[in-house]
Amino acid sequence: MPIFAGSKSATMDKQLKVFKFGGASVKSADAIKHVGGILKSFAGDPLVIVVSAMGKTTNAMEEVVEAHAAQTGDAFQKLEKIKQEHYQIAQELCGDSEELFTLLNDIFVEVEWVLEEAPEDNYDYMYDQIVSIGELISTRIVAYYLQSIDLPVEWMDARDVVRTDNIFREGWVQWEETTERAQNKMLPILEGNKMLVTQGFIGSTSENFTTTLGREGSDYSAAIFSYCLDAESMTIWKDVPGVLTADPRKFDNVSKLDALSYREAIEMTYYGAKVIHPKTIKPLQNKNIPLRVKSFVDPKGSGTLISAEIEDNYPPMVAIESNQALVNISTRDFSFVAEHHMSFLFQTIADMRLQVNMMQNTAISFAISVNDVDDKVERFAEAIQENFQTRIERNLELITVRHFNRETLDGLREGKMLMLEERIRNTVQMVVKKVPALRRKDEEVA
Length: 446
Ligand code: ASP
Fold this sequence. Notes:
- By secondary structure, the chain is α/β, with parallel strands linked by helices.
- It is built from 13 helices and 16 strands.
- The chain has helices at about 30-40, 55-70, 75-95, 100-115, 125-130, 135-150, 175-190, 220-230, 260-270, 280-285, 340-350, 375-385, 405-415, and strands spanning about 15-20, 45-50, 155, 195-200, 200-205, 210, 235-240, 260, 290-295, 305, 315-330, 355-360, 365-370, 390-400, 415-425, 425-435.
- The strands form three sheets. It has an eight-stranded mixed sheet, with helices on both faces.
- Aspartic acid binds near residues 53, 134 and 217.
- Aspartic acid (ASP) binds near residues 22, 58, 201 and 218.
């Protein structure tokens, strides 16, 4: 069945799939070879393959930006290290291919030019121009290697497709334009049953400046392509067997969920379940595109299927978002926090793109728990200071439990001071502070 009956893709005889491979799956030459092995079994299928920066490259690129901004003098050195690591992987996969090394060099040179100039005043703009090369480099290497093992691969610059607004580091997708460009630029290639390798995480403004979509945003990129091209399905290949009931690094006894509704997945990822980027699900849900989360270590494993199907028997699921700040707001003149105050506060929250995870109000106060990113909280307090007093508590955790039972909640509350709690139907949310447990000195523990 064609993807777009009656539209441009009506000539495509097979259904389009979108795959996303994250940093861990392309962190070394061996890892990339493994990806090649997985893709071999899909040769002949139209496929969009969204690839992240290799391993922890984005963190390393962030250090380059910081060094450049602070003029610490070692930005070039840091970039050189990243360059050598990538060249080494490229060499292992493709030998001394002059063509590939020229492509890579061209990308690195652009950043070197930026580093030669004085740092930009607009940090976020500078960040996007520099950090985005992680994805450009990784996709060049991956695409080149896949071609060398005879897969019908073409490389595409995601910035020619994903159009965002002008907010750097958190670009918002302009859907209409992005859809039009995806259909015009990607479909003709995919109709030849090709595999298109492109970058996650990046887009561009109407003036063609590079933007990024927010950290860990490659999942979201894959969802954008899936949506715009009406994909049959999307698959995220991960180093875990699927979506688990809690983060295995934080909890024992976690188990894999075989199926999950879009709604469950949105709720859990929004509140900190790190397995999928929170913005990923909505575009898929809007077009009813199923999402599979599968293990690249065990590609034959069943993974987790996220779709419109509603299960009614979920086990308790726990998501933890650390780095929460609780902002208590009250009026300076001790008046009630009234509608016009709320409207001003919400407008300021929106202008700053502050992610509010919980809120509670009383007659004279309003409390919000937000992700404590950079200096956003300080800037927010500053923006409202004329009329409002704020008290900020930091280093808190937001714990969200869906389908809770008593035992799970009791376990989670142990050793924690409860700052804010809310229960809505089957979900309990709490903002907590870790407090060291008091131990008796005068009694020996048996
Ligand atoms: N490379 C980007 C990051 O690490 C995007 C991604 O991997 O999803 O945030």
